[in-house]
Amino acid sequence: MPTSHKDTNLRTAAVIPAAGRGVRLGPGAPKALRTLGGVPILVHAVRAMARVRAVQVLVVVAPPEGAAEVRALLDAHGLPESTDIRVVPGGDSRQESVRLGLAALPDDVDVVLVHDAARPLVPVETVEGVVEAVRAGAPAVVPGLPLADTVKSVDPASHTVTGTPQRALLRAVQTPQGFDRATLAKAHATVTEDVTDDASMVEQLGVPVLVVPGHEEAFKVTRPLDLVLAEAVLARRRATDGY
Ligand code: CTP
Ligand code: MG
After folding, report:
1. Nearest ligand by distance to the CA of 221
2. 24 Cα to the center of ligand 1, angstroms
3. Residue 78's pLDDT band (boundaries 50, 70, 90)?
4. How far is CA 21 from CA 42, 44, 62, 88, 146, in A?
5. Domains assigned to the chain
6. Nearest ligand by distance to the CA of 93
7. Residue 41: what pLDDT?
8. Which residues line ligand 1 (CB under 6 A)?
9. pLDDT of residue 161
């Protein structure tokens, strides 16, 4: 019988890029180290991934000079012993940080999730949906949501609209994005253009990318108002499910 990643004991890992400064959030500590409900955003994101049974290995990509601090922070927050958590220093771009995280994966990992530390409140079901789709054979999977706003393309020099893509054909994509490890490794080894997510690198290889349902609570903490929203979501969870 041919072996495929569906019927072996290979493991699923999550790379969590957390090396960004968070310029759009305004002055302060690196975004992943800012707190929500008194707990660093990164710790929320690591817990969210560690809560998923299928995910057995985590690689946290820390700010370039902050790996020791991040290691200490994670140890101080008592994360589950059953998850193998590694910390590596990141790079100047998200892409570089993910590449450095991939380099720290153990050999027996065949499915890789890449999850922004800046999406601390992703629900377990969203992560599970991505893992299941990769395990079922999709080489690349992204969680996506329909857009609320109409989107225009513009000429940035003249501030003139150049087009309006049909909204029904657009999706806002989130993380975790899930991949067959070899596919993601090949994408990172061959694509050099600037990209803002991992799936777009895989798209450039001509590999199909499957969209599964995203979740509103998987939003990325990017601007100051997102912190207000995240605090509200967390407060509601703590009130309703003893989170
Ligand atoms: N990231 C990273 N290494 C970088 C840049 C970004 O690991 N050199 C990570 C961020 O820490 C974040 C994720 O990539 O978890 C998504 O990036 P983004 O939301 O853009 O975060 P920042 O780059 O930190 O924010 P900004 O662009 O506002 O500076
Ligand atoms: Mg950024």
Report:
1. 1
2. 10
3. confident
4. 13, 17, 11, 16, 28
5. 12-141+173-241 (3.90.550.10)
6. 1
7. 98
8. 17-24, 31-32, 61, 90-94, 97, 116-118, 220, 222
9. 98
